[in-house]
């Protein structure tokens, strides 16, 4: 029997794909439609494999595979980027958008073929659909990409295959297939871009802050892989192992990551970072303000743990308590978006690196803070943290930061896009910081009418849509760079679709919703 929430989630994704297709209407958008149709059918094969325990790796339970919504994110982002840069006349980034879309389609097809290949008996109709969609996409790529671009797409696919085999084995139950596609696909693309730009650094293309993001992401991933292999042979909980962890982190950071970044930006990374952070008085004020908010977040963690009584060790923080952090994140990002995009970009990269490093310390029980972090963060676990890693706070940071990082600055001559595109950097704030938070708080306290087949309420969704419209009005008042050019109907439709997706998806909404809202705005 077909799962009603999955069908509604799929319908919402199809509507978004058709919206993009109607706006673009070229061969790439037709490929996206073909990919969506085959992903819809393959999704049910993945769901069946997960229910029967037939998947090769252990995926996150209490969620469907999420293949359709995840499969469409990277292709639609690439198509939207291509159109924006084409209208701005930036050929280099127009081609880059085509490569992003092609890569996303090929990686999604690979995951579909895996599901079809290990399903017994072999689903004939789904195989035919996958073959037709694959033929359309490969034919389009053959007549659209240059030889170097085809090689680049295949490189990302190869990295994705090896990275998936390693990380899904080392991190069981941390991802659904769809989340693995998004996270590992993104890491694979970043790693390939870093290698490509390192080899072609003489060309001088790219902003130092872009290189900073690439090196930081690849650096923390390589650091994690190194210590995972190392602690197979050593007990990570001892003082000797902990000292070795800190020493090797310093060696890899100063001996590998810093020289790599120096080669890319052609200056001392530490001096560049300090000069960048304290370049203007506005940046100093923002840094002081963000430090205060970070201290407040730490205070909430300590206060909530202090409330946990010894008789109730299994007590978990309520949904409303967890949403405090959403409010803090909104208070962090909005001033950065209004006053200094670039500082927010770099600060978010630094925060991501710190979050992942602290998670390594917690996971490996590195002294002196590893065990303390385990105790403090256990209070805020929910059903999505079923694997060895705690990722929800990292997903929250990613959901807020990805629209800032993926904003096509080179295709926006005045630093902002026109129409609804001007709200692209605010996608995370609207979808996660405002919409998801308000829906959760009002739905859990006042909601009575539930959406069919889910725990989410109609009142929560309606309130979330209303709150996001108010947030857009406030952005118009306080951010003079935003000019919507009467595209209010499109904004209302975008916010409504993403809010409905929040009600029905079982994937990590902090990661998925901002990306779909960004696609609609672009």
From TrEMBL:
Keyword ATP-binding: no
Listed EC numbers: 2.7.1.108
Keywords: Endoplasmic reticulum, Kinase, Membrane, Transferase, Transmembrane, Transmembrane helix
A GO term for molecular function: dolichol kinase activity
Transmembrane segments: 12-41, 61-80, 92-116, 122-141, 153-171, 211-234, 243-262, 282-303, 324-339, 345-365, 386-406, 426-446, 458-478
Taxonomic superkingdom: Eukaryota
GO BP term, example: dolichyl monophosphate biosynthetic process
Membrane topology: Multi-pass membrane protein
Subcellular location: Endoplasmic reticulum membrane
Record-level GO cellular component terms: endoplasmic reticulum membrane
Keyword flag Membrane: yes
Protein family per UniProt: Belongs to the polyprenol kinase family.
Name of the protein described by the UniProt record: dolichol kinase
Organism taxonomic ancestry: Eukaryota, Metazoa, Chordata, Craniata, Vertebrata
Gene: Dolk
């Amino acid at each position: 029997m077909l799962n009603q929430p999955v069908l509604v989630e799929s319908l919402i994704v199809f509507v978004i794909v058709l919206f993009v297709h109607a706006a673009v209407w070229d061969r790439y958008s037709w490929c996206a439609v073909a990919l969506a149709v085959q992903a819809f059918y393959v999704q049910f094969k993945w769901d069946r494999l997960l229910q029967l325990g037939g998947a090769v790796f252990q995926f996150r339970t209490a969620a469907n595979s999420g293949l359709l919504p995840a499969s469409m994110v990277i292709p639609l982002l690439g198509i939207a980027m291509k159109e924006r840069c084409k209208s701005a006349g930036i050929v280099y980034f127009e081609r880059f958008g085509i490569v992003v879309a092609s890569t996303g389609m090929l990686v999604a097809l690979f995951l579909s073929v895996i599901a079809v290949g290990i399903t017994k008996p072999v689903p004939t109709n789904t195989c035919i659909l996958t073959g037709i969609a694959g033929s359309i996409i490969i034919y389009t790529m053959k007549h659209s990409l240059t030889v170097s671009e085809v090689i680049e797409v295949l490189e990302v696919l190869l990295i994705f295959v090896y990275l998936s085999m390693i990380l899904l084995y080392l991190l069981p139950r941390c991802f659904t297939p769809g989340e693995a596609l998004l996270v590992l696909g993104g890491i694979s693309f970043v790693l390939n871009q870093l290698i490509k730009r390192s080899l072609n650094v003489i060309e001088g293309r790219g902003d130092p802050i872009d290189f900073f993001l690439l090196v930081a992401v690849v650096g923390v991933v390589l650091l994690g892989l190194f210590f995972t292999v190392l602690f197979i042979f050593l007990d990570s909980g001892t003082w000797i192992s902990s000292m070795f962890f800190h020493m090797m982190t310093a060696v890899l950071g100063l001996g590998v990551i810093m020289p790599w970044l120096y080669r890319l930006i052609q200056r001392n990374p530490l001096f560049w970072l300090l000069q960048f952070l304290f370049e203007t008085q506005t940046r100093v004020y923002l840094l002081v303000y963000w430090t205060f908010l970070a201290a407040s977040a730490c205070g909430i963690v300590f206060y909530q743990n202090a409330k946990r009584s010894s008789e109730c060790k299994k007590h978990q923080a309520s949904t409303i308590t967890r949403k405090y952090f959403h409010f803090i994140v909104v208070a962090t990002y909005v001033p950065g978006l209004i006053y200094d995009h670039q500082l927010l970009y770099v600060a978010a990269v630094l925060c991501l690196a710190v979050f992942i490093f602290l998670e390594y310390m917690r996971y490996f029980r590195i002294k002196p803070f590893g065990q303390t972090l385990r105790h403090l963060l256990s209070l805020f676990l929910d059903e999505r943290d079923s694997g060895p890693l705690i990722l929800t706070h990292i997903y929250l940071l990613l959901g807020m930061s990805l629209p800032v990082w993926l904003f096509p600055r080179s295709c926006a001559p005045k630093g902002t896009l026109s129409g609804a595109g001007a709200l692209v950097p605010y996608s995370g704030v609207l979808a996660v910081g405002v919409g998801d938070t308000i829906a959760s708080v009002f739905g859990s306290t006042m909601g009575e009418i539930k959406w069919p087949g889910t725990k989410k309420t109609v009142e929560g969704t309606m309130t979330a849509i209303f709150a996001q419209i108010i947030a857009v009005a406030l952005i118009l008042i306080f951010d003079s760079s935003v000019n919507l050019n009467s595209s209010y109907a499109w904004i209302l439709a975008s916010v409504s679709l993403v809010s409905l997706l929040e009600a029905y998806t079982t994937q990590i909404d902090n990661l998925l919703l901002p990306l779909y809202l960004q696609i609609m705005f672009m």
